[in-house]
Amino acid sequence: MKIVVQRVKEAEVTVDGKIVGSIGKGFLVLLGVTHTDTTENADYLVKKLCKLRVFKDENQKMNLALKDVNGELLIVSQFTLYADCSQGNRPSFIEAARPDKAEELYEYFCRECAKNDITVEKGIFGADMKVSLLNDGPVTIIMEND
Prior knowledge:
The protein contains two helices and eight strands; from the N terminus they run E-E-E-H-E-E-E-H-E-E. It has helices at about 40-50, 100-115, and strands at about 1-15, 20-25, 25-30, 55, 60-65, 70-75, 120, 130-145. Strands 1, 2, 3, 6, 7 and 8 form a six-stranded mixed β-sheet that branches. Strand 6 (about 70-75), helix 2 and strand 7 (about 120) form a beta-alpha-beta unit. Helix 1 packs parallel to helix 2 (about 100-115). The longest helix is centred in the last third of the chain and has 16 residues, at about 100-115. The N and C termini lie close together (about 5 Å).
């Protein structure tokens, strides 16, 4: 499982011109699932994400977590995180999990994040989504769990 975390001032995802998920201050999370991922992989990344201290404290040091700043999550599925561009110019997505498994783990990940008393907004799995954000910093962090 792989996530790309962007600290944002705001972010939203639209499908067919309608906003389906929107947050203020918090994290936009792009989540990719591979074949071997399990709920244990998701649990590890949920814990890391929810405790990630990248918001500034009173001394302007990145020392605060989402809950400390009343931050929110916008979680968007993104199989392209498992693109393999090592051969030729057209990416291969063979390392991405099949949609049924990926959706199950995506939904599980979202539910587990919400159990941490954090507002969770989502995209629509498998939809053609348009994501907009105002990156804060910018701060972008990539986390994986094999």
